[in-house]
TrEMBL record:
Name by which UniProt lists this protein: DNA topoisomerase (ATP-hydrolyzing)
PANTHER family: MEIOTIC RECOMBINATION PROTEIN SPO11
Boundaries of every Spo11/DNA topoisomerase VI subunit A N-terminal domain copy: 98-138
Family classification: Belongs to the TOP6A family.
Any GO MF annotation of the entry: metal ion binding
Cofactor: Mg(2+)
Organism whose genome encodes this protein: Cyprinus carpio
Keyword annotations of the record: DNA-binding, Isomerase, Magnesium, Metal-binding, Nucleus, Topoisomerase
Enzymatic reactions: ATP-dependent breakage, passage and rejoining of double-stranded DNA
Matching InterPro entries: Meiotic_Spo11, Spo11/TopoVI_A, Spo11/TopoVI_A_N, Spo11/TopoVI_A_sf, TOPRIM_Topo6A/Spo11, WH-like_DNA-bd_sf
EC number: 5.6.2.2
First-listed, main subcellular location of the protein, grouped into a coarse class: nucleus
């Protein structure tokens, strides 16, 4: 029983609750006070950051996904150390920034070097302060798109209608501000690739079978796409399916939506959807639907490394059906893209494959 209470306490520390502006400012002030105190004592200021990108920093929690451990390894940044001084300056510079991510970058592109560097800095600040990035009033431009039976209001009152069958709506850059969600959708379909997403739009998939919502993060999903899937799941209480390539990287992308990522495990509670179901393309579908051999792609060394990594993860071993599919893929040493289904027939994906899967329960 004691161990049970310890686990609950650790999880409570990991799950970041919505934070008011004053709470955020108080946390920032504490960091700055620590720096000022060190300078007044004639010491070099130090910032301590949790190591967000190490597997040793996270653990798997079945109802949430990848969450940060209580005893996360810490990286020390010293302002007087050449190897960490630049990052120290970056963190201090942006502690008080309340602009869009792109605006911060273009205020001083030479300081940051790249957008990727800035994104990492902002995530470090969020993790250090134990608040979501959006609590810092820093909103990244979304790369994802959404379409289907869905209407909602943005925070500023703008009405967004996603019902168009031929065009998609960019995912909001302020998902938390969305309200008045209205939808008769029967399910949500996460689509890995933009090309497949466009194919579903062209074939009016969202209305052909039953009302639904489709969303794509165009590959590895950005935070806003993940937030949107989570918000819709919380609000609509409908099944969430994933349509990804039958390859190790497609599975990895699906796992990010379902279980989260190492780097953002500190806010897993608002980003993961543990109920995501793998609809396709399953490795076993390759033989079941007789996907032409010439459309299959041999495994690369990178594919082999990725699949070996996947098989060591706790969230795969707790899903026997997923584990069997991954083992089958590794035995075949071949992968298939969703587009390979069009070699069977031009509209096979939208008029045969997906309808059969959804009608007869062909997911795991």
């Amino acid at each position: 029983m004691a161990d049970q209470f310890i686990e609950v306490d650790e999880l409570r520390d990991t799950l970041l609750l919505p934070t008011h502006r004053q709470d955020v400012l108080t946390r920032i002030e504490r960091v700055i006070q620590t720096i000022v105190f060190s300078v007044s004592e004639g010491e070099a200021p130090v910032l301590r950051l949790m190591n967000r990108c190490n597997w040793a920093s996270v653990r798997f929690h079945e109802s949430v996904g990848l969450v940060r451990k209580a005893d996360v390894p810490v990286t020390t940044l010293r302002c007087d150390c050449p190897s960490s001084a630049t990052r120290f300056v970056h963190l201090c510079t942006e502690m008080f920034s309340f602009l869009s991510v792109r605006d911060i970058y273009y205020n001083d592109p030479q300081l940051f070097g790249s957008q990727k560097t800035l994104d990492s800095i902002l995530d470090d600040i969020s993790c250090m302060l134990k608040v979501p990035r959006r609590s810092l009033h820093v909103f990244a431009t979304s790369k994802g798109f959404i379409s289907g039976d869905l209407c909602y209001l943005e925070e500023d009152g703008t009405k967004v209608d996603c019902n168009s069958s031929s065009t998609a709506v960019p995912v909001s850059s302020n998902v938390n501000g969305i309200r008045n969600i209205v939808s008769a959708a029967k399910f949500i379909l996460i689509v890995e690739k933009d090309a497949t997403f466009q194919r579903l739009l062209d074939d009016a998939f969202c209305t052909r079978l039953s009302p639904c919502i489709i969303i794509t993060g165009k590959g590895v999903p950005d935070v806003n796409s993940r937030l949107m899937v989570r918000k819709l799941w919380d609000t609509l209480h409908i099944p969430v399916f994933a349509l990804v390539d039958a390859d190790p990287y497609g599975i990895e992308i699906m796992c990010i939506y379902k279980y989260g990522s190492r780097s953002l495990a500190f806010e897993a509670h608002s980003l993961t959807v543990p109920s995501v179901l793998w609809l396709g393309l399953l490795p076993s579908d390759i033989q079941r639907y007789r996907v032409p051999e010439e459309t299959l792609i041999p495994f690369s060394q990178a594919d082999e490394s990725k699949i070996n990594s996947l098989r060591t993860r706790d969230y795969i071993s707790c899903q026997p059906a997923w584990e069997r599919e991954i083992e089958a893929m590794q035995r075949l040493k071949q992968k298939a893209e969703i587009q390979s289904l069009s070699s069977i027939a031009p509209h096979f994906l939208t008029r045969v494959y997906l309808p059969n899967k959804l009608r007869y329960g062909g997911w795991i």
